[in-house]
């Protein structure tokens, strides 16, 4: 395979996909998938709890396997790929990042809400000090106007990030909105621009292509759509589409198809598709990682999960406010009782 790449893909199934399987990855699953992705020449493979380093908790869901063990295992089987880790300041800590680097992580993605880049300077600086390739990851990008996004991206650039990502956490952005955001970042930043999609409105591929057209060179995908909500841009499909467009990823399409079919499909509890709930995530602009939490709350209170998700969207609830999901479910359920009597 060639190492000539126009676009550098980060495969996120072993991190974003953790949400979809309730953080139940085993060491064997992670090593098998990471080794195969490495052999397919994927340049970056992200491994962490779905909510990033330190995410294993009552609030976000306990991991079956300690993520540090998963990171170490993945790092031990890759030859050319770099292992990336996600860190949300406030969930993960500086010691977590140091430990991940010691175990073989080579890229740190520091994620904040789109209006809160100013919580990330210490983490970005530490990642750089550790010699890691450093990415600023602006989540829920649909919630801020483009000027705000640019302001926040510039902050991350000033802290030392090598790349800033527009992250469509809810899968809520429409193609023209992606176009405007990526173009504005390309016009305002000197560093790389990246894009991370969720497929809740079936727009992940279209949005990713628009982002690339506007100059994004760092792109996330999840193989077999193993990501939160309806998953991300499906990596093996993206690799094929980019190949048809003459855009080089350096990734082996046949190997990616085989990994999707033979290694990743069996990990899924059910095939990834746009269900009524994942559609509502995109429609209402809700964090994709809230999906299973909302379904659990709906079951507990005997209510429709779509009502919970719509209300979370109305309230503009963001990452870190997972406890609101139960609160909202309880309120909806109480309101229901009031109506009945
Ligand atoms: C909770 C972290 C989140 O899953 C990061 C991410 O992939 C996103 O915001 O889309
Ligand atoms: Mn995501």
UniProtKB/TrEMBL annotation:
Ligand binding (Mn(2+)): 16, 196, 198
* PROSITE patterns membership: PYR_CT
Report the active site residues: 19 (proton acceptor)
| Single GO biological process annotation from the record | L-leucine biosynthetic process
Show the SUPFAM superfamilies listed in the entry.
Aldolase, post-HMGL domain-like
Keywords (A to Z) from UniProt: Aromatic hydrocarbons catabolism, Lyase, Manganese, Metal-binding
Q: Where is this site: Transition state stabilizer?
A: 15
**Domain Pyruvate carboxyltransferase per the UniProt entry, residue ranges:** 7-257
Q: Which InterPro entries match?
A: 2-IPM_HCS-like, 4OH_2_O-val_aldolase, Aldolase_TIM, DmpG_comm, DRE_TIM_HOA, PYR_CT
> Which reactions appear under catalytic activity for this entry?
(S)-4-hydroxy-2-oxopentanoate = acetaldehyde + pyruvate; (S)-4-hydroxy-2-oxohexanoate = propanal + pyruvate
Q: Which domain of life is it from?
A: Bacteria
Which E.C. number(s) belong to this protein?
A: 4.1.3.39
Q: Which GO terms describe its molecular function?
A: 2-isopropylmalate synthase activity; 4-hydroxy-2-oxovalerate aldolase activity; manganese ion binding
Q: Where are the transmembrane segments?
A: none
Q: Where does substrate bind?
A: 15-16, 169, 196, 287
Q: Fetch the HAMAP family from UniProt.
A: HOA (MF_01656)
**Family to which the UniProt record says this protein belongs:** Belongs to the 4-hydroxy-2-oxovalerate aldolase family.
Q: What is this protein called?
A: 4-hydroxy-2-oxovalerate aldolase
> To which species is this protein native?
Lysinibacillus telephonicus
